[in-house]
Every structure is written in structure tokens, then in C-alpha cells.
């Protein structure tokens, strides 16, 4: 089974399904999103959408109300294509530990979703993820954390430390750790419950090295609409040979992790 480990809700959702079909991906992990760059028709409108993204990643738009429309879109997409999308739900990180635990129990575990994410702690504040990991441990859920900018090298170190504190929780660093991809590979390699998702890799040989170092814990992903599922799959296939390792990266590991 080929599974795109990282995708965001598209408008319209049928465009996302078409991309997955073209890439030969049977399923995709689906995260909610507040920005919609795929709606942009020109540079000015793209700039507006990317400003929403920057504010979200920087922690300036973390109020619960800012998530509601995104959650509604996410629920609608999951309902429309339950056999194609694997639902993960993000959690606002400015809530108390008790509020986070209640939300994970009610809106993720009881709702039948498969995991938590994509979490976007502000730069330098990856420690905010800890209450989510605690809640995830209680329900046997994996957690996905944004790995590219503005995530810092220090944030990656913090995430690895937290992963070691919660060894039963699968912790996925997305986007290959961004500019800090070499350190991300080392941290994931040396932390048995961490995984590295390969979307939007800055250079092709970053993917080659990641798969070589951690073949059992690297995950094919596109980060669509920011990346393209076809190109992401081609990159993995370009740097691997047919066989078990490639099959695991393209979906086998994630299917095993999620019990699919």
C-alpha cells in the first residue's frame, strides 16, 4: 500500500484526490489547514495565504476560534473520502494540559482518528508539545510535528528529548527537519520511537541519506499542496532500489504504525 504521510485539506478536495490518483497513492494522512495556497490565483493572493501560514507557524494565530473553520473542512473531507484519507487532528498548544487531554480523548481517540498533528509550536518552544505526548501515550496515538522553518535546530533537540521521555509514543518529524535535515536524521536514527517524514526535501541526496540511515523509520510524504505527491514519490524511487526498503518508505512502515 502506498500512503502519502503528509497532506493538507485542499479546496476543492477532489483536486487532492486527483493528485493522489496520479501518484498511485491509495491513501493519505490528512491534516487540517488554515492557509489555502492552492486557492491563490496570483502572487498577491498567494502572499495573503502565506501570511496566514507564517502567523500560524509563528504562534500568532493559535486561538481556538482560528481552528474551527479548518476543523470543519477537515471533517467534511474525511466524511467524503473515508477510504482515501487517514485523519489526524491538530491541537492548540496554548491550552492547559487538562484541556489538551480532554480534547485528545474526545476529538481524536473517541472520534476514531488515527493520530495527532500536524503540531506547529512557535520557534524555540517545542517543549509545548509535551502535554500532547502525554495524552497521546494514554491513547496509543502517534504525533506529527512540523519540522521545517521556523522550527529551529534547538527545537529538534527538544523534540528528541521529549521522545525519549515518552518512548511508547511514535513521534514523527515532518519535512525532513527542513534546513536542519542532517541533525534531524541523526536524532531520529538514535531515538527508536522517532520517525522522519520526507516531504519538501531541500536536496535529493537528503532523502537518499535519510533512507540509508533509517530505512525502517522514514516515510514518503508530499506536504500537498506545498509539495506534489507525484514528485515526492519519484524522489523516493530515484534514490532507492525496488524491494523491501522502498516499499516500507512508500507506505509499509506507516501502515504498520497505524495498524492499517
TrEMBL record:
Keywords annotated in UniProt: Hydrolase, Lyase
Domain of life: Bacteria
Residue span, Amidohydrolase-related domain: 3-259
Signal peptide range: none
Coiled coil: none
InterPro entries for this protein: ACMSD, Amidohydro-rel, Metal_Hydrolase
Protein name: Amidohydrolase family protein
Source organism of this protein record: Actinomadura montaniterrae
Taxonomy of the source species: Bacteria, Bacillati, Actinomycetota, Actinomycetes, Streptosporangiales
